[in-house]
Amino acid sequence: MPWNPDHYLAFGDLRLRPAVDLLARVPVEDATTVADLGCGPGNVTRILQARWPRAAVTGVDNSAEMLARAAAAVVPGVAWQQADVATWAPEAPVDVLFSNAALHWLDHHETLFPRLAGFVRPGGALAVQMPDNFAAPSHRCACQAAREGPWRAVLEPLLRSAPVRGAGNYHDLLVARARSLDIWETEYLQVLEGDNPVADWTRGSLLVPLLAALEEPWRSAFEADYRRRVAAAYPRHADGRTLFPFRRLFIVAVMG
Ligand SMILES: C[S@@+](CC[C@H](N)C(=O)[O-])C[C@H]1O[C@@H](n2cnc3c(N)ncnc32)[C@H](O)[C@@H]1O
């Protein structure tokens, strides 16, 4: 998928906040090996390196565009690897496997999560944050726009209604391997500026595979249709700003 780091980083601060909140709950003092799965443009990877400065940190992503942006800043101790997380495996067990806003792009969590947990050393941690807002208007508008236009046959197979499961499900998937489990959900009330900022936000994430699947003129027509729907679903408030509530699921599993 042709990710665009500029679109993604347009809301860099708000996208970083959950990674920082997740990192604050990882109870690993010393780490020698850390991997950041779905590292994107590498801004979270750099924070991991600062938290564990003696560790060898690897940022893993399957997007050449995102990795090019990540590698543009040389950070001692950080290596970048292009790989699909679905099949990636570390050379040896790691101390921390971290993943912010990436694993919801992968299917089959029932096998993915136990597999990833198996790559972590005893006493190390698997730490994951995923959006859990697939029923929000921002997503529903994308499904409606995809299904109600001439592009339906192209886009409908790409719609992923609920890639993230309930919190209890992740407890069940990890409990047998974990010494401790810390799972929680947070809804951030994001306050956005601009003309149609929710559509600008999803252009850097949710819409990436849908826009990539379309040629012109459908690509622009689909995006315009989506933008109209989203503007109506998220009207501006009296202060001129737009509120975009965003629910996220957090998992920290310390391995036994
Ligand atoms: C929303 S971005 C998150 C980037 C970064 N973790 C952050 O928090 O800023 C999602 C990233 O996951 C990557 N990704 C999605 N599916 C992937 C897969 N199967 N294997 C590796 N990376 C993947 C995308 O290329 C993208 O860079």
| Class inferred from helices and paired strands | alpha/beta
The overall pLDDT average reads 96
Q: Briefly, what CATH class? A: Alpha Beta
Give the percentage of residues in beta strands: 25-35%
Enumerate the distinct ligands: S-adenosylmethionine
Radius of gyration: 19 Å
H-E order: HHEHEHEEHEHHHEHHHE
Q: Uncertain runs with pLDDT below 50, 5 residues or more?
A: none
Largest sheet: 7 strands, mixed
CATH architecture: 3-Layer(aba) Sandwich
Q: Within the largest sheet, what's the order of strands?
A: 3-2-1-4-5-7-6
* CATH homology superfamily name: Vaccinia Virus protein VP39
The domain count comes to: 1
CA distance, first residue to last residue: 36 Å
| Strands, total number | 7
* Distinct helical segment count: 11
CATH topology: Rossmann fold
Shape: globular
Helix content: 25-40%
Label this structure with key terms.
single chain; seven-stranded mixed sheet; binds S-adenosylmethionine
Commentary on this structure:
By secondary structure, this protein is an alpha/beta fold. The protein is built from 11 helices and 7 strands. It has helices at residues 5-9, 12-23, 43-51, 64-72, 109-117, 137-147, 152-155, 167-174, 197-203, 208-213, 218-233, and strands at 33-37, 56-61, 78-82, 94-100, 120-131, 178-192, 242-255. The longest helix has 16 residues, at 218-233. The radius of gyration is 19 Å and the shape is globular. Bound molecules: S-adenosylmethionine. The site of S-adenosylmethionine has 21 residues, from α2 and α3.
